[in-house]
Amino acid sequence: MGQQGQGWLFYATLLLGWAVSVHGLTRAEFFPFGKTTGDHVLEQGNDLSQQLALDKPVLFYDGKFDNIFINTNGFVAMAQPSAESTYLGKMPAGFGMIAALHGDLDTGDGVGKVYYRQDASPATLRQAAEQINRAFPEDDEVEPEHAVVVTWVDVASRQHHDHSRGDGLEKQRNSFQLVIASAETTSYAILLYPRKGMQFASTAVGGSSQAMQAGFSKGLVKYLVFSTRQGPYYRITTERETSVRALAEETNSGKRGVWVYEIGTSPYFTSVAPGEVTDLPPDTGLESRVSEEATSKRYPGGGQQVTYSPYEPEEEVYRKEQPHQGPHHGGQFTVHTVQYQPQVVVVDDGDINVDVFSYNSETCANNRNKCSTFADCKDYASGYCCHCRPGYYGNGIQCVSEGKPQRMNGKVNGRVYVGNSPSPVEFNSNDLHSYVVANDGRAYVAISTIPARLGPSLQPLSALGGVIGWAFALEQPGYKNGFSIIGGEFTCQAEVTFLPAQEKLTIKQVFSGIDEHDHLVVSTTLEGRVPEVLRGSTVQIEPYSEIYQYSSNLITSSSTRDYTVSLDDGSAETRTYQWRQTITFQSCPNDEAARAVLPTQMLSVDQVFVMYDSNNELIRYAMSNKIGDVNGGQQKEENSCFTGRHGCDTNAVCRPEQGTQFTCQCAAGFTGDGRSCYDIDECREIPLACGEHSVCNNQPGTFRCECNDGYQFASDGHTCIGVDRPVDHCAAGSHDCDITERAHCSYSGGSSYICSCLPGFQGHGRVCQDIDECQSARCHQKAVCYNTQGSFTCQCRPGYYGDGFYCSSERTKSQCETHRDRLLGSTEYGPQPVPGQYVPTCDSQGAYEASQCHGSIGHCWCVDRNGLEIPGTRTGPGRGRPLCIEQGPTVRPAVGPTPRPDVYPLPPGTHLLFAQSGRIEFVPLEGYNMKKTEAKTVLHLPEKVIIGVAYDCVEKMVYWTDITSPSISKANLQGGGAIPVIRSDLESPEGIAIDHLGRTLFWTDSMKDRIEVASLDGTKRRVLIDTNLVNPRAIIVDPVNGNMYWADWNRDAPKIETSAMDGTNRRVLVKDDLGLPNGLTYDPQSSQLCWADAGTHMIECMNPVQGDRRKAMGAIQYPFGITSHGKNIYYTDWRRDAVIMVDRQAGTETDVFLPQKQTRLYGITTAYAQCPSGKNYCAVNNGGCTHLCLATPRGRSCLCPNNALGVSCVESEGGQVLRWRERGAGIEVEREGGRY
């Protein structure tokens, strides 16, 4: 499906990452092991190693190894391991290591064992080839020639062995397997982690508990002559236990719990390569994960995340039987997986408050469009009713496809007291997301940002998802679930009474129908008191039944529910609460036959699972739901369609037939055999699916028509009719503002515009008059003021010296004049130069002239404002003076200040651009203040996650990074669609910056861990920095001074770094007292570099040259992006879903803008109507470079792209030629040295 991987798959990521599915790896799926296979057994104990001489070498990184060492502690080494005290808890290790699951392990109790062997049998090599080729589907097929199989079985953590609990409880044990499969020029590591074999995720190291590690380390390598340093390494897991548990739940090979890596190649090796299939088959629960805690970019879903870390159960919750192989089913079926790896995922919620439909007494003729697209309208004597068509179910107003999974989202608000606490826990607009596998009744619910004070005590309330389970429960013969009867618009009011203390909680849930994304929208409110459940406790809820009683527009139910709270000390207690709820809805009163619903039905709920994730403040519920007979009657041989054990695709409906026979039929909008269903792209297969002046957007199981720009839907909801097209009078030149030398026209949307006078002029914008600044005594009393159009100049009177704003009778020599006079010396005849010596020339203001010449040798060159020669600018005798950029005087200019010296003048039309999930919005600025009422969306990109934004003030283009594609794109703010810039060799592009002078763009990639540059059209691409980066995100450039700054939010060692814009002279600016430095901004007016830190909850600033770090604002919540303009800082905040304005001088928050859509905000930038002043050497004729021109503090560098094809390319720093590349006829030549 066109957007299937991006549109609905994130729901599975959010909700089903912890759901147990049919394809969890079991120990039976290991490569064969044990004594019957010829395995050796490692001596039992702790930290024991055994050398294994190999028949064929293993390739690891760039080396070949004929011997390896098997170790108790979950790894294979390339050399004899040192004592465990030197490597436990230290990844990477100092020696070559393949860490299958490395920790302080023990087999000394006689239960755990470590098996190992070499194997070249056809069966083992064939099994290895299947795993490798499935993981790398785009590569040539691999045929291994040799394998090493190492299996750790029932190994325990050593602290469990040394410190027995003494309570009779069994130890937790892990089982996992490593297979090293080698061909002639390549070796692979295959890692297998069964779900039920992963019972603990950490071991004791140095007195503290540390997460176990999986990954690869080359060990120490030689450095210089007499020293060594850490070589390359690759981490699969992080310091978090969740990443260890995820090994059994995720994959990079297309099979859950199986991970494949290319670990060595010959004769050349670049890096460890992970498998490329991170998706799972459609019927496995869609369990790809996005974990905020996983900071490794190689681990699927690594990095600082935008959403929640999934939970991975240690025990299997659901077990699905083998699919029934009736006469209507095939045997094998193929699932085609699609690779996706989003780094940052966000749900774009629709508005919750929508009008609820109600019937009237009219006929279908005037109301047909009020029925669902998948419903028919039928007239009755008293009015009309809507009825879902075959293949769909609902109440006619809301219809969904049979068998199709359903998704819900919404907000949760609450005011809840916990235990005997006198103060409530309050929360607002917390995200709720739910996913229901409709063809077997499984429902999953997740609620975010629940404080730790409350989260554990909400675990018993699985009923928060109960009404969702009822709405889409698996139907028994003759019975209907809630959605089939009342659709998706209803209100549920429930009262919970906890026994015996009679605490009461009220839950109100308002379901507002299906939004434009085909998601059911729900709003939830909690009020009251709940008994306390201590932190760290777990809750188990027993299966229960609930009787639903139906009447006209009203449904009631009640039940008593038991749950068990297990405490950390091993004790447990059973508690009870009573549940009563009322559901109100609007039915169609005109069709008596359609209202004939059984007066009572029973909802049976089992396999209930609850969990509170304190690290991410996230609570999850899961349950299996069936609706049927109040007596619980079942057929002797129950059909699989009514048990959910049918094996149909999650996008299929199970059709019961005679006896136990059934068929699987793909839901409407999907095609396949029912066991495997694929989305139908209606937009491609039905050319006229949408009418004229519209565009067709494919969606899972359906499609949506949208009118083109300039058109809107007519009253029938289908036909697109023209609307008055807006005219940008500023761009068209049809405005009535004053001339451009005096005024500026700012387009404000629609056909509107604003005229404003430029600084130095006054008026209403249509007529602007010069301000005579000389009337207000701007100059020194010993100076003369000269008024000019839009400005003024000051000049000291004869006999006085200075810049006109300050004049003195004594003139102080400038740096250039002092330099000159010192070289000239003094004699009785006046200053005389030393023969043959260079003497600088100074201009009338005392500054160094931009070009200097040495008359004796005939050489000329450019200098900076301090008189230092700029490399690469020297010309020889007879070649004339070089073209030099004026550096500006070292004293204050003669042009007067603006009317308010404390305010930087703002070009008219300046505004803020910020990213909000799949859209870019803007807020106009008036002065420094946000014109919040005029904010609007500039660009809407559904199903995208936009992270970074940057603005090119020359071409009025906005650039952005998108992590779903992934890609970098741009669009003209004056109109036009998205234009792809870079779409290849990206994994997670985040920060982005523009050099408007050199016409280049810079970006960070937080999964490739590098910083790159390219021309603005995406060509001439080059990697600038790719070492010592872990989580690079924010990046900014200062093109006038040639500097680049970036932030790395690596949780272990966050830092802010800088370099020249060509990547040279790299150094760390800040490394102490940082947490999560997400955003960076640089103000050239004040030379202040500021950053927003979500870990320290502060905004700090410094002058990068002086290093004077100071706090600009404290006690902020969770900042992400940041930009500056004049005295203000503007930042986006994830907790507040807002743009916040801060006066950085006063250190106070001055304004807040809340977008209409309350979802997370990402990058933010300032879009100027006029470019900031300044120049660099790349601004003219590309600095004389053949390809990339990158500014540096002392000039510029000419660099070649990484792939300079078809033309000659010269690399130089200043005038020194570093490399000259020529490509032609398949030959590449590199030449060194020389000047040009």
TrEMBL record:
Signal peptide from the UniProt entry: 1-24
Main location: secreted
Span of domain Nidogen G2 beta-barrel: 404-637
Domain EGF-like residues, every copy: 637-678, 679-721, 726-769, 770-808
Annotated SUPFAM superfamilies: EGF/Laminin, GFP-like, Growth factor receptor domain, Thyroglobulin type-1 domain, YWTD domain
One GO term of the biological process aspect: epithelial cell differentiation
Cystine pairs: 853-860
Region (Disordered): 274-331
Single GO cellular component term: basement membrane
GO molecular function list: calcium ion binding; Wnt receptor activity; Wnt-protein binding
InterPro entries: 6-blade_b-propeller_TolB-like, cEGF, Cueball_EGF_LRP_Nidogen, EGF, EGF-like_Ca-bd_dom, EGF-type_Asp/Asn_hydroxyl_site, EGF_Ca-bd_CS, G2_nidogen/fibulin_G2F
Domain annotation Thyroglobulin type-1: ranges: 813-884
Repeat (LDL-receptor class B) residue spans along the chain: 956-998, 999-1041, 1042-1086
Subcellular location: Secreted, Extracellular space, Extracellular matrix, Basement membrane
Key words, A-Z: Basement membrane, Calcium, Cell adhesion, Disulfide bond, EGF-like domain, Extracellular matrix, Glycoprotein, Repeat, Secreted, Signal
Positions of the NIDO domain: 100-266
This protein's name: Nidogen 1
